[in-house]
């Protein structure tokens, strides 16, 4: 039996479905979560479908999350979207579900779930949700709300169709979703918006990146910098692509001191870097991965390995 059918059989079987995704949700985490929730609701109006986790304030316009008691998990199917490893699942109660399904497009880090559906060829988990809807023969159930969620997810993970995970299939799905009259210009503007108080920090990044001759670049955001600019670590991390247009850039790491650990967002223009992230306990895609390390000393080791990649 195809994975899609297996997933679908489970959804059909359970009266309650709880949908999780990764911590610090990005547009694809929320897009796949809300897109799947809205689709199941459209298909089975009598079932109880929940989307749980902590909202990222800048993406609150994408939808509203549900607050549920532990008891709801007893007879529930849990679906975890867009999350390669269990420590990154937002809301650890996912484990309480009667059965767990993983749907993801990241190279697997942890094997978890009774059914695992991973397609690393898909641009995004939102694209996979569309694939599921289509393969079940349910595209007639799509509506503006579902299309909006999935479109934002695809746009988010492809960097507005710029990254090399964008395929003709991605474009096809985007064009199908646009048929639902979603306000895509307005939504894309909203996705890119940044609070005015963050702009001076962008100036700091532009003045303090360290680009080396080999094309490796690092940006280190220490606690002092965060204090000077009065911004939160999560806000600082939004600026990972500020230097993306630098001529000669090949691999970069944007590291932010979060107090307990240092979050490193790693990007590349072609060179595979997720193996380095994995060496330090992280993961992600070949050209966009991440890891949290315990100190600036460990960060230097990470930087050394990334630098070796561009030699
Ligand atoms: P980010 O820089 O947070 O956008 O992450 C880029 C990619 O790396 C995403 O696909 C994440 O799922 C993955 N990633 C980021 N941090 C980690 C981590 N600590 N462990 C595993 N994967 C990660």
Q: Which structural traits does this protein have?
A:
alpha/beta, 37% helix, binds adenosine monophosphate
Rg measurement, Å: 20 Å
Number of strands: 11
N to C succession of SSEs: HEHEEEEHHHHHEEHHEEHEEH
Low-confidence stretches: none
Strand order of the largest sheet: 6-7-8-9-11-10
Gap from first CA to last CA:
46 Å
Ligands present: adenosine monophosphate
Give the rounded overall mean pLDDT: 96
Please bin the fraction of helical residues. Answer: 25-40%
Strand content: 15-25%
Structural class: alpha/beta
Task: Summarize the model shown.
With about 300 residues, the protein is α/β, with parallel strands linked by helices. It has eleven helices and eleven strands. α2 runs antiparallel to α4 (about 145-155).
């Amino acid at each position: 039996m195809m994975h899609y059918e297996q997933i679908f059989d489970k959804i059909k079987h359970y009266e309650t479905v709880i949908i999780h995704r990764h911590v610090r949700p990005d547009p694809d985490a929320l897009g796949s979560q809300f897109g799947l929730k809205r689709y199941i609701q459209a298909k089975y109006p009598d079932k109880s479908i929940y989307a749980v986790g902590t909202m990222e304030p800048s993406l609150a316009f994408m939808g509203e999350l549900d607050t549920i008691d532990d008891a709801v998990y007893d007879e529930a199917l849990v679906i975890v979207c867009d999350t390669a490893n269990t420590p990154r699942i937002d809301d650890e109660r996912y484990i309480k579900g009667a059965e767990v399904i993983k749907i993801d497009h990241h190279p697997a880090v942890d094997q978890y779930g009774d059914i695992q559906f991973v397609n690393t060829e898909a641009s995004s988990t939102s694209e996979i949700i569309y694939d599921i809807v289509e393969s079940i023969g349910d595209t007639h159930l799509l509506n503006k709300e579902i299309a909006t969620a999935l479109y934002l997810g695809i746009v988010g993970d492809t960097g507005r169709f710029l990254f090399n995970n964008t395929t003709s299939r991605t474009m096809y799905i985007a064009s199908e979703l646009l048929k639902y009259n979603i306000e895509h210009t307005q939504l894309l503007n909203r996705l890119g918006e940044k609070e005015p108080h963050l702009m001076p920090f962008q100036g700091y990044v532009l003045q303090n990146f360290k680009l080396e001759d080999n094309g490796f670049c690092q940006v280190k955001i220490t606690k002092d910098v965060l204090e000077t600019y009065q911004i939160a670590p999560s806000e600082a991390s939004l600026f990972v692509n500020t230097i993306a247009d630098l001529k000669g850039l090949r691999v970069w790491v944007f590291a932010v001191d979060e107090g307990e650990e240092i979050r490193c967002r790693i990007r590349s223009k072609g060179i595979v870097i997720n193996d380095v992230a994995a060496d330090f306990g992280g993961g992600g895609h070949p050209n966009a991965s991440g890891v949290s390390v315990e100190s600036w000393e460990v960060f230097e080791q990470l930087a050394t390995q990334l630098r070796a990649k561009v030699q």
